[in-house]
Amino acid sequence: MATQNRRDFIKTAVAIGAGAGILTGTMPSRITAKEVKTPSPARKGVLVDTTLCIGCRLCEYACKEEHNIPAGNLNSYEDRSVFDHLRRPDETALTVVNEYKNYGQGENITDVKIQCMHCDHPACVSACIVGAMTKQENGAVIWDTDKCIGCRYCMVACPFQVPAFEYQKALDPHIMKCDFCYDRQQKGKLPACVDACPVEALTFGNRVDLVEEAHRRIKAKPDKYFNHVYGEYEVGGTSWLYLASEDLSKKALPKLGTEPAPGVTESIQHGLFAYFVPPVALYALLGGIMWLTKSNKEEEEI
Amino acid sequence: MRQYTEPAPVKIKYFTPGVIVVCLVALNGFFFLMGRFIFGLGAVTNLNNQYPWGLWIGIDVAAGVALAAGGFTTAALGHIFHKDKYEEITRPALLTAMLGYTFVAFGVFTDIGRWYYIWHPLIFWNHTSPLFEVGICVMTYLTVLYIEFLPIVTKKFIGHVNLPGVLSKLNRTVDKLLRALDRGLDKTMFIFIIAGVVLSCLHQSSLGTLMVIAGSKMHPLWETPVLPLLFLLSAIAVGFPMVIMESITASHSFGLKPEKETLSGLANFIGPLLGIYLAFKIGDMAIRNTFRYLTEFNLQSVMFTIEIVVGFIVPFRMFMSKAIRESITGMYIASLLVIFGVFLNRFNNFIVAYKPPYILKQYFPSFGEVSVTLGFIAMEILLYRLFVKYFPIISQPKTGVTPSAKFEIKGATK
């Protein structure tokens, strides 16, 4: 009877230990953002001053021309009825301009160009199952056709809802998103949209300088600008920065915190797989239980 | 009691009117599946740039993995904790897990846009991606499941190798190989059994990590950094209800008597397991103060209420009642509710909770998507029936031992 109790006790203790082991193994060790790789200080960026944008959509045209997407007739871009509906970047247009009437208070028209923000800590790069998304030295987040399996997890992960997918293609569908004109930049040229903008609403330069320039503009004309540089701190900072007369996170761009989007996930992943200790510990624990309960059983049989 | 029942092929006629209906469902699914591969994802699904993941990921993959949890939970109970009386249910559970994961793999293969690159995760590693971890674990676990199943196959053919024509000269060699394989597997099986449980714990939880990165797009009723823990706990909780449901359904369909004692034993675990899940889920909601979203009336709050009340709280109460745990009907209904709850939980997490900031077009699964999902389930059922007909999976009374004799011998040994 006494041995029976002791055996039961051992079994229960081991079971509880196993449970606790599994729980601690899967519990994120800490759920705050972990230290992420600092992006290059020389990374480039674009400052979008929406107060200057006139909604001519020449950036859209130039982008399509550059990326071999059917661009249509240049005159058709004068048609402003496209602004009646909200548009999003997709597989047929890597950048789009949306126009908002009476944005915020006061009667005004705000045109906001949307494209990939080229995050400093991109969720898509962290999420991609095969590492097909990469953050380049110049800040560009680009997609590798030779790796991508088309799982579309980057689209799920992106806080700005930017990457698009060619659903209509049975073979070789691509993830389509702004690549910050990586090839042009390599040749020392400006991104196509920046090059095409007739009113200098887009300013290309080192991100550090652009942040300074943005704050200088706000300081110079505090009545004209809403005092916030969108992208300076959003999800840990983005290469593309926005200035506007109103708070863009009300409508035109998503309202986001300052923590990098992949932070929590990467902490969980690193907690779970810290030098493979939790899985190996769990394996050892289960092995121990198996051996213990088996020897108990043999004892019983003798 | 185990001495008097043993796994044996079930003597059944394969085609019955019900099976023919299932065949038609499978055929319909296959038709749309071909459409997907010939004309692309856009031709068959309603997926769009706002909703990149739909029914196939939410159900075929996420719910499929969760509902195949019967495999590792019973393996842990029967083989690791050595609860011998549950060993007879490990084989059917292993078969369902093996089929379940095989179809999870098919589901992934169907859903990914560039399916011909499905092997890429093996060579291109991204250790920060939870999807990479899920992918590798599922691939490895599927291999482990096939290895665990292999002895059942080798045992069937040992001594019965009979190759046709010229190949018959190889009969002896093949037989020897099978015997060697069987011996090797017998000695090393414990390694794979433990690995199976560890791999399951890893990917069941990482499946929950998947949606954490989409935090800003997720409805707060589901969004929490402890999602991986909740996914693991709910997967463990749904393992035994799946086994109970399958066992009772199979007994009914093959005209066998359900193993009530074993199933009631399993049912004893379910209440506490559901309780642990509920404690963590409700505790997390209290800490994060997300109950206030239930005061809003929308799709999310309604779906959440159905999930937690019908799928978790009601069956939790049911499994805590002894009367229900000892009634076949009671266990069957309560198990179905848990299965429904976890199924809906995965569906909600991956589809209902996902609210991108800019929606141009709402997502609702297309007829093609539903057809493929149902088709896969139908194919699973057909394969299950085929396996139990030809392989010793389901425990049945040994021939020549009548129930009364069984009782007498049992009494004598005590």
Which properties best describe this structure?
heterodimer; A: 302 residues; Alpha-Beta Plaits; two-stranded antiparallel sheet; 9 helices; B: 414 residues; mainly alpha; 2 strands
Strand order within the widest sheet of chain B? 1-2
Low-confidence stretches of chain A: 24-36
Q: Report the CATH topology name of the largest domain in chain A.
A: Alpha-Beta Plaits
Strand-residue proportion of chain B? under 5%
In total, how many beta strands of chain A? 9
Mean pLDDT of chain B, to the nearest integer, reads: 89
Main sheet overview of chain A: 3 strands, mixed
Task: Please state the structural category of chain A.
Answer: alpha+beta
The helix tally of chain A amounts to 9
Structural class of chain B: mainly alpha
Give the proportion of residues in helices of chain B: 55-70%
Order of helices and strands of chain B: EHHHHHHHHHHHHHHEH
- Quaternary state of this entry equals heterodimer
Rg of chain B, rounded, reads: 23 Å
For the termini of chain B, the CA-CA separation is 11 Å
Through-space gap between termini of chain A: 16 Å
